[in-house]
Amino acid sequence: MLEIKNLHARIAEDGTEIIRGLDLTVKAGEVAAIMGPNGSGKSTLSYILSGREDYEVTEGDILYNGESILELDASERAAMGIFLAFQYPVEIPGVATMQFLKVAMNEQRKYRGEDELTTPEFMRRVKAAAAELKIAPEMLRRPVNVGFSGGEKKRAEILQMALLEPKLCVLDETDSGLDIDALKIVADGVNALRSPDRAVIVITHYQRLLDYIIPDTVHVLYKGQVIKSGDKTLAHELEANGYADLIEAAA
Amino acid sequence: MNMQQAIKMTAAETALVDAYTAQIGDLPGDGSVLSVRDTLVHELRTAGLPTRRVESWHYTDLRTLLRAVPAADPTAFADRVEALVAGSTVLSVRNGHADLKGNAPEGVTIRSYTDSLLDGSAAAGLAVLGSDDAIGRINGGLVRGGLELTIADGTELEDPLEIQLVQSMGQAHTRFPVSFGAGTKATVIERHLSTDAGESLVSTVNDVTVGEGADIIWIILQQQGVADTHLGQIRFDLAKDAKLYLFVINAGGKLVRQEIHGKTSGEGADFKLRGINLLGGESHTDVTFTLGHNVPHTTSTEIIRNVVFDRAKGVFQGKILVAKDAQKTDARMACNTLLLSDDADLSSKPELEIFADDVQCGHGATVTDIDHTQLFYMLARGIPENKARAMLVNAFVAEIVEELEDEPLVEALEGVISTWLDKHA
């Protein structure tokens, strides 16, 4: 589903190279965890996958279902099924959450040549998904993410993911700022979306989230490269021993 | 040596003075009114239209910007349009002529302003606010009609009162003295429209007094055509515990100056100004505001949101004066602008003149582009860039419309805004 080949990327504004020859393959149905110390390029990778213009790819390629997506903008990538759950979901005062959801769902449908949802059908889907994630109707009446607590924001991200039904989900530190109950709700939401035709990339600092979302593969990112890949036991090793040994071995 | 030199009049100045001369004997007014008119037009002829050298017109050089005054077309027909909010009482003014037919809501007395000119009762109100009051001068010289509204003490109007000014070509000058009695509650929508693409020039002066404890919402919605000149002025005076919520939306016009001049005369008075300027094309739009906090314990907040596209130019001048005795005044003014093109321009001039020593006053101005993080977030959800931008621009102004909390009114104004944005964004 996703193939990243020898990717090099830098911050467009000042030219700082963040990703330095990264290779990664994620198959349909797979849940891949990406771990790594601060500053290793984890969040940058998520932004580059979703098409943020603040980064420039200087070498290599990103193939999604066999096609390069480097020339596509963020909205096109999203409509093709790539979803980024933000580490810091953005507040948009003045834009109602329901309007935002409806426009996003229908614009994606339009892009894919599907009919727009009727209002009753849209409402039905939102209500069902919100109930699953224990999101109160009052939250949906507020502007996008405005006045939401940290946990509410993360649940709102998963709600959007459930409604948009992406094929490739990228979760950027979704566990940060969550208490254990919220973490379980979020993990349940993600697990409910696991399916043979969908891949999930879980970017995280800690093993904790991976107790609830069990990964098929684990990749360690350091200085913009994958320095080690393995199965879920790798995450436990990291939790026990830290990154120092791996980094030394890679140096 | 005689240094006095007659200024060479511009085409527009000549046309305005000629319009007056041509109507002598025909313009309504008794002797006292006609004498005020003569003085005003004489001043216009000698001083000319204001230039950038006049401080209050520094960013709107009317003498240069008003190139010509459109000729009237006697066959031009201005049709009335549907009310902005269903159920409103519509007071129709077409090509400057007020229609007095129809039923006034209970508690509201409507009188033709032309009658007040004819019997001379309008004379005192024709005085200009100062030597730089070009709008008062042009309007006072040429005004033919309008409406005088008196809302009796204790009247609570359930439905809005819409003063609907529709113009088709030519020029029109109208006045609306409005007196809200004590304890009244009302929403007035002053709506400026034009029916066609022909050029027009309109001036309107409103003189609003808000009685003790009254609670008034006044909306000025200017949606004139791309070739039109709009010179508007609203004056207001707030009595004890009176509340005035003034909402100004500019979504049209080529050359627009909307002046707002008010004062608080009774303790506990509260004034709110919310302004939305949607500017595009080659238009020039100026909102100039002065407020005198004249007595202790009065409050005001002013929030202006400008959205500027293309080569449009916007101006906001806001001046709050706090008199020496006006202790415990609380006044806050903000002017926020989204500049959406490299050629767009906005000048903001907030001023505070405070003579009291125990007050809370502040002002702030921001000029920004679209927030890139918000834009990326919307794109990352599959919303195409042009649509995402339109939604963010809309959000920037919708935020203050929603403050109105009157659902049909909010919906109608949001409709005006999104229609405008669909055309320009």
TrEMBL record, chain A:
Superkingdom in the source lineage: Bacteria
What keywords does the record list, in alphabetical order? ATP-binding, Nucleotide-binding
* Record has ATP-binding as a keyword: yes
A Pfam family cross-referenced in the UniProt record is ABC_tran
Chain ranges of the ABC transporter domain: 2-248
Where in the sequence is the signal peptide annotated? Answer: none
Q: Which GO terms describe its molecular function?
A: ATP binding; ATP hydrolysis activity
UniProt record similarity statement: Belongs to the ABC transporter superfamily. Ycf16 family.
Would you tell me the protein name for this molecule? Answer: Cysteine desulfurase
- Supply the source organism for this entry: Ensifer adhaerens
From TrEMBL, chain B:
Decide whether keyword Nucleotide-binding is in the record.
yes
SUF system FeS cluster assembly SufBD core domain: residues covered: 171-396
Query: What Pfam families does its record include?
Result: SUFBD_core
In its UniProt record, which GO terms are filed under biological process?
iron-sulfur cluster assembly
> Highest taxon of the source?
Bacteria
Q: Which SUPFAM superfamilies match?
A: Stabilizer of iron transporter SufD
Keywords (alphabetical) are: ATP-binding, Nucleotide-binding
Q: Which PANTHER family match?
A: PROTEIN ABCI7, CHLOROPLASTIC
Q: What is this protein called?
A: ABC transporter ATP-binding protein
Q: Which species?
A: Ensifer adhaerens
